[in-house]
Amino acid sequence: MSSQALKIDGLKTYFYTENGVVPSVDGVSFHINQGETLGIVGESGSGKSVTSLSVMRLIEKPGKIVEGEIQFGDRSLLQISEAEMRKIRGRDITMIFQEPLTALNPVFTIGHQISEALINHLKMSKAEAKKRTLELLKQVRIARPESVFNSYPHELSGGMRQRAMIAMAISCDPKLLIADEPTTALDVSIQAQVLQIMKDIVRERGNSILLITHDLGVIAEMADRVVVMYAGQIVEQCDVFTLFKSPKHPYTKGLLKSTPRLDQLTETLESIEGSVPNPLSMPAGCRFHPRCPYAKPICESVSPQLQGDGSIHEIRCLMYDDRYAKEWDEVMV
After folding, report:
1. pLDDT tens-digit profile of 55-101?
2. 126 lies in a domain?
3. Whole-prediction pTM
4. Cβ 11 vs Cβ 25: under 8 Å
5. 104 is in which domain, residue-wise?
């Protein structure tokens, strides 16, 4: 059995605004095994990115991690000092951001920024760091590594910047790589190349990946297991094959029905009616019930808990809670 690279238990990250408390992440628990890719999927505002930033301890005021545990190997990331956390960031846990142009420093060359991580974390000399940086740029399939080494971020295309960002992220051979919407700004052909690079990294290096995305196509391509989030909570969690073959939560079903598929011909795609609730006034009971086609009156008052079905498949829905399942006349189809 694989050992766990990361374990999150009961994580709550709230933002204390002038208008009230926003429960961006509200009691989230999951784990990532070594060498595994875990995908987190959901609409904007579901809490995906805040979850990843909580792991990195990069939540800024008025945000605060108020409860829970983040275990990285044998270390509790919420118990160590900021100085210790800085040593882990960029060395053992790294992040690929959605838009590298804003993540990369515009006043330093690509070579300088990658080399800096090698010098600071691995104590390489400048010459060693440059040699290693050129090797990394080749590994992410950059054809002219010397030219890119001396280029500034704004001089590169979006795809090249993203590859450079990946090279920086893997430079110190991290145990965990967090990829937050890594292909959103790229066209389809470049997206496929970037995803292949990430798959090669897992195969060759055995890194674990936490993949944040709203794109179920990316999930199908990359993930071993999937966490579906809605309004700050996990609503379904299972392996990727189960998710696509037999999804159970109404929200997951809605996401899948709104995604085009090559094996199904259809003139129109279904959509999930309504919108993600205002985080300052979450609905009582099930947070998805105002948009759920299967909702019953009980859903308006009882908050569902994650329910298992005897395997690793978990669903947050009263329909799968033995105490309330009788409220439904038939099982969802």
Report:
1. 999 999 999 999 999 999 899 999 999 999 999 998 999 998 877 77
2. yes
3. 0.90
4. yes
5. 100-171
